[in-house]
Amino acid sequence: MSNHKTPVDIHDEVNYDPTVWVPKAHSHGTKGLWKTFWILLFLTIADIGLYFTLEPGTFRNGVFIFLGVVKAAFIVYSFMHLTFEHTGLKKSIVLPMLFVIYLIVLMLSEAYYWLDLNWL
Amino acid sequence: MSNTAVSTTSTWAGGKSPFKISYGKLMMWFFLLSDAFTFSSLLVGYATVRFSFPQANETQMAELRKEMPFGTDVHEMFHANPDGFVGAMNDRGIFAETQWPAPELVFNHFPGHHLHWPLMFVSLMTFILIMSSVTMVLAVEAGQRMERKKVEIFMLLTIIGGLMFLGCQAWEWTKFIGEGAKLYTNPFGPVTFAALFFLVTGFHGFHVLSGVVINFIIYLNVLKGTYEERGHYEMVEKVGLYWHFVDLVWVFVFTFFYLI
Fold this sequence. Notes:
With 120 residues, chain A is an all-alpha fold.
């Protein structure tokens, strides 16, 4: 092993030191990032447009939530660079979010039950 | 002996990073995952309460939209006949406690005038936050190319964007509180609407505030040359992850509170 005087190689795969090790950074360019920006801007304007053109109700709410998930996916995959990460990391970040879908289904059915109980 | 050598370098036995990212960045991802669960709970909780109320009566809303088109001077309308204005709303049941208020009637203010500009201010806030996300990601990209000057510029722009967003939110809260909305009262309908609005936008706003503070600390380090010396700008990438997450949460706060 190297002595304390010589600086540690931060990219050293052989003598891996988790406290300093980082993979070599390389840029993927800015073109994709700007594309994501325009998509996010377009979807946000579409949201406002749809708010004033569609009838309020379950369909419109569904469209808004769907567009929200699309925007979130663009932010995570492009801005947060998840596309360029290891498959295992992608899975361990995205799959746990399935619990949230379960929570939504569970709580929505509860909400409609309360609606029936209180108002209808 | 050869077995031991193989096991220490195999993917899950230590000796290298299984996900090929640094320890700090992996922990940032896992923190954000847990934070995503926290925000999901808050937003799903909001949605539950929201959908347990009937929505604003659409025939009466359509009538009101004709009487109060985009750009109407609501201030003038109100002050010409305050009791009549509120009475007319109450007669229609639009701000009744028995139905969820339509967001276009609650969030219709814009700084500088008293005109009815539904959802325009929140669109501006969303645009500011998306823009600051772009400058953040450009700082990260410049960091990957070790271009210190560009990292400095883009970090500073991100901090300014964050402060602008916080200013907008402070203005909106002031307006909403001025109209009588508190954690325990809400002139626009169900109390839970105001309570959850302050809770969730406040929790998100606090994330933005802490994001600005962390960004500022990293910005000072960039100015000092800490990362130039370290040989990589991964710290900028890590705060970038946090900053984009805050933007991502705003997408859903915007969807649930201002659109649904």
